[in-house]
Amino acid sequence: MAGPPKLGDGVQMSSYDVTVERHADRTKSVGTGKNGNAIYCFPYDKLPAEAQAVIKSLQTTGDSQVRSGDGRTFGNYFGDLPASAYKEYTVLTPGVAGAGMRRIVKEDGKDTYYFTACHYDRSMEGQTSTTKKGKTISRNVTSAAANAITDATHRNGFYFVSGVPGKA
Question: Does the model's pTM come out above 0.85?
């Protein structure tokens, strides 16, 4: 089975995930990550059923173990999200073998969720890197490919999940 198609210079997304991202509300930003990139809303009722199931599980049991390692700390090394502590969880993608690129990231101690369909593969033009605990972490993405379906300020691929049932 062939892998997901590439969106230009190495940014891979399944065509299904491109379709999913078109449901995001990019009319207003709910803030920015530490890196200054905008964070827009993704209505809960427009999320893929698999992402809704992860959030429901987190709300009812406090856990979601779709794959081994779910619930590990999301380091936010590139500042894609506001400064806080987070955990990440796999969201399965129909037709994609393995973990795929979708994730739910939950802010620790809060009922705040972020969705990504691209597994954090968007960034500024060229190579970006950060140093965390003495270790340099790098990623290479071309902004033209990364922004193929988004605007210039939304390069990190994260959306705040709005309208989560049971949320005040």
Answer: no
